[in-house]
Description:
heterodimer, A: mainly alpha, globular, B: 348 residues, mainly alpha, 68% helix
Amino acid sequence: MIGYLIxxxxxxxxxxxxSIGVVxxxxxxIFASRKTDLSVARGSASRGxxxxxxxxxxxxxxxxxxxxxxxxxxxxxxxxxxALLFFAAPHVIFLEENFFxxxxxxxxxxxxxxxxQFAFLGLIILxxxxxxxxxxxxxxxxxxxxxxxLTFVVMLTGCLxxxxxFHELRLLxxxxxxxLLIYFPFSCLMHTFTFIPSRAFTGAWFGRRGIDS
Amino acid sequence: MRIQTLLLLLCLALLQxxxxxxxxxxxxxxxxxxxxGADLWREVRQRDGMIIxxxxxxxxxxxxxxINAQGDxxxxxxxxxxxxxxxxxxxxxxxxxxxxxVIRGKxxxxxxxxxxxxxxxxxxxxxxxxxxxxxxxxxxITGLVxxxxxxxxxxxxxxxxxxxxxxxxxxxxxxxxPIFLVSLLMMLYxxxxxxxxxxxxxxxxxxxxxxIGKGHVSGGFFNMGEKSWYWLVILVGLxxxxxxxxxxxxxxxxxxxxxxxxHVVHVLGxxxxxxxxxxxxxxxxxxxEGSSEAMKSGYVDINWVEAHHDRWxxxxxxxxxxxxxxxxxxxxxxxxxxxxxxxxxxxx
Lengths: 213, 348
């Protein structure tokens, strides 16, 4: 019964909430009313947007030493998670069977383990920094903690089911994924979809004013 | 004539058979065995513990060994020692600490907490400490499930539920093991220099860290007890990590004997580290007044420093590193009232 619920109705419900929620949020951001910029352009907005999207991947030289830990941990976590999500063999099969109809080459098992270790270590360090640095702690909200813990739980249940020998462990992983999908559009996890538009927007704003951002 | 020739040939032929028969040893007397092939299997089983490599068409590590008697010894040792005694050791340590707490109580600071603070650990050092602690706790729990789960958890959850739990524990234990090693090496890199033994440490040991006798025991940034705990974590942690890597990578060519030894070393090291870490947790939290703050905010009260690390306290005063309660509250983003309340609660 629980298995049927997790594999069936709850899965479709969470997928619907995720899809509609993400589209809703993005549409709201795109069509948000903004004042027309009447100033004379001093530079190219589009060039500034493109430049900012890519330049923000590397921390600014002046602040790099202060944020070294979160930059390294951030890359470890995000790259590890990306590799797990799209290149872990069970995920490739799942995406092929349920979404795309075609598959691609999956990571070898050792690659999966390495990616998972990178992602776990990165996430643990990032969350600990949020908790232990007084400034980060003060500006963190409940949403930040819930998002981090939920992501950790999803990754952990995925690794518990690594042997693919127990139906219950797979169900547990899927259930936590469904919780994450439902939580996703209403949380800071939306930065997955908004980080490029927001960088572009800021870059365009600066670019138009001739500011080297 | 013909008949004579035939008889002669016959005699010669019989003589040949007789000579052949004389060369052969007499036939062995008949043997009665109630267990057919016992000798053969005794040899195969290598009862004396000698590992004899046989010949096999399959080429690889241990493929020439039919039955490894050492494996039997390892299994018996595992069941009769670590599996049987690990829970006892851990429970005993907890009970001893509880008893100690009841008798001795919290080790206080003369004069209580002052509210004036000194930075002891940076953000990075605390992140390292907690990363190692979280990963260690996770490995300890999953490791205990694998070690003593069969006798302790099957009666509680049943075989199928335990089977699932054991599978999950094994996969996650193997996955988190290398993260422990990485954290440990980072810990070695960050803390090693301050944990080198120096003059005065032996006095601390002889006075039992202040628990034996009366009077103050002198200590630097880290005292002898903290240094010894640090090196125990590093050395035993490395032994556990290396033996764990040997266990998790059977395709590197190590045989069953090395795997068995690695397992024993891994388990014994882990039990030692678990037992001592309970003591560390006790000392860092309810056991000593003002200690936990070091790994929470990174700051410690100057009175705590003077009580436990007087040589470092002198340095702090000389370098003017002591900050006021107001400054500490500002750095932590808390109001002074709240900081005072927390300090008072800690003092209680």
